[in-house]
Structure formats: structure tokens, C-alpha cells
Amino acid sequence: MFGKKEEDKYLDLTPELKKMYGKNWKLICAIERNTKALEDITEQLKRINEKLNR
After folding, report:
1. Domain range for residue 33?
2. Does the pTM of the predicted model rise above 0.70?
3. Would you place residue 43 in the very low, low, confident or very high pLDDT band (cuts 50, 70, 90)?
4. In contact, 29 and 10? CB cutoff 8 Å
5. Are 39 and 22 in contact (CB under 8 A)?
6. Residue 12 pLDDT exceeds 90
7. 14: burial class by Cβ within 10 Å (0-12, 13-18, 19+)?
8. Superkingdom of the source (predicted)?
9. Which helix (H) or strand (E) holds 52?
10. Based on the structure, what is the number of domains in the chain?
11. How far apart, in whole angstroms, are the C-alpha atoms of residue 43 and residue 39?
């Protein structure tokens, strides 16, 4: 994400969704990204835990 303009971070959101979300669309995009990141971290921790329990 480094070096990209602020707007570029949210290009995955369609104009229809932007209109539906109103002023909160950037916040909703950030929450979606954070949720995905937390899911990825959870999976990594599960794998580490499995390795440690062998």
C-alpha cells in the first residue's frame, strides 16, 4: 500500500457500493481489510500451534 494515493486504497469498492455506504465507505473498506488480516493471522497462529503440539 505504500506509495499509493489515498483513493487508490479503496478502488475495489464499486461506485454502487460507495453510494450505498455513503460517507462511511472508507471506514467500511478499512474494517473489511482489517477483518481479512485478522483471519489470516488466526490461520497462521493455528498452524504454529499445531507445530508446537507435535
Report:
1. 4-53
2. no
3. very high
4. yes
5. no
6. no
7. exposed
8. Bacteria
9. helix 25-52
10. 1
11. 6
Helix/strand/coil for 5:
coil
Alpha-carbon distance of 41 to 27, in angstroms, equals 21
CB–CB of 36/28 below 8 Å? no
Q: What is the mean pLDDT of residues 34-53?
A: 95
Contact yes or no for 18/25 (Cβ under 8 A): yes
C-alpha 2 chain-centroid distance: 15
pLDDT of residue 1: 42
Four-residue CA torsion sign, 41, 45, 51, 54: negative
The gap from C-alpha 31 to its chain's centroid, in whole angstroms, comes to 6
